[in-house]
Known about the structure:
With about 350 residues, the chain is of the alpha/beta class. The protein has helices at about 1-25, 50-65, 75-85, 100-105, 145-150, 165-180, 185, 200-205, 215-220, 250-255, 280-290, 295-300, 315-335, 340, and strands at about 35-40, 65-70, 90-95, 115-125, 130-135, 155-160, 190-195, 210-215, 235-240, 255, 260, 265-275.
Amino acid sequence: MKKLLILALCLMMAASVVFAAGGAEAGPATFKGKNVRVVIGSTATAGDSYLIAETVSRYLGKELGANLKVDAVGAAKALDAMQTSKADGQTIMMFHDMTYLGISFGAYEDMYSLENMTVGPRIAQNPGSAWGARADAPYKNMAEIPAYLKANPNAIVRMACEAGGVSHVGFIVYWQWVADTYGKDIANRIKVVIGGSTDAKLQMLWDGNADVIFADYTSLLQYTQITDKKLAMKFVGLLDNIEGVKAESYADQGITLDGKEFRFSKDFVIYLPKNFPAELIAELDAAMARVNKDSGLIADLAKMTYRPGTYLNSADTKKFIYAKRDSLQGLIDRAPSLDDLVL
């Protein structure tokens, strides 16, 4: 009987210890020690989305004490991950302006809007969104295309871009400038060819199915440095200037929006699931602020012509990216549908 009583008391004490441990508050949330999946809105591993995410992740992972691994899943899956993943720091997204442009253009549902995720810090910029043409194209830049069309009444120019992304913005700004400057008859002879990956658009150019294609500056650069007549290209217009690069931007060519200078650099931002813990956001901000000053990261991004040292904390990035989205909405709302311009 005495043994049973002692056993019962021991069981009660053990249960109280387990209960106390279970009822104790968990420690503060942290990225430290975690395996973090970094989804990006591209399936390519050679473009700016992957290169910036992979480069920043290597440095940021060390500062966080976490293992960050980039997963190139594409825009639809990346946006969906922000809606379905737990807000525990194990899944984050690094992506550029297509995050909100896809919704602004109606390519994705409103459930994927910025309001339904958490905006983290800005990690880098890419000023090198570029239009390229064959080296022997009968115009040296974008500003000369409408003059070429005017002089050749039966000609058209086919521009390959993607619906709902940065290239879509670049196209409608250009089309509107041509319409305002040369009239809609000329503008309507600038046609859209919907292209996917950079490789697919390059093939369209080489096969004669497109005259001008949109891609990242770094992905086209090698083709502007060769003499093979079939493959050789030239830059005909960038959406912004790249430091140390001579290729002309819209601003250099006088291509304006409503009479005002137009510049557009891709802003790469960390996005997080909705209701992300404040302590994790603070940890991420602090780590990225340190990474932003790392000479190694600055050099790695700069040699790929990306713009380093552009960190903004999460609060400032939210204000910035919301304002950028809103500033483009009027242009998007009045722009012609690509369906009306597709060849």
